[in-house]
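Exercise 7.
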Amino acid sequence: MSWEKALGFGVDIPFVKLLGFELKLFESGRSELAYTAQPEHLNSFSVTHGGALMTLLDVTMACAARSTTPEMGVVTIEMKTSFMQPALGPLRAKGELIHRTATLAFTQATVFDAAGKACAHATGTFKFVKRLATGPKSAHALNAPPGVLSTD
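Solution. The predicted structure, written as tokens, is:
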């Protein structure tokens, strides 16, 4: 199952593919992703780079938000991250939709190591948006008036 199909984004996200995230749960306001950092994803201390962890948390929270309305997209409005301990080996990120309004999702996610210890935690606010079409067929969307989202 491809990432774009599994997550319902309907678009290709090269950075997420590059990191190798694997979707495990996407339903009822909850999400879970698996990730094992590759050598090029480590920092100078040989642990998972904070940027990779923040991306994992961001995607996990976005999935939790979207799991109740998969036909919509979300964009990150704000995100706060706390790093608690080095993240080594296979990781699991679990996300939860805490509250939702018509246009916003309030979420949280935690990254756990193989021993089940929390490594990083984040809270985030996401705005629901119509998904944009991408690729050659949507080139006309670039000429759309400001504020108009293409839904081709």
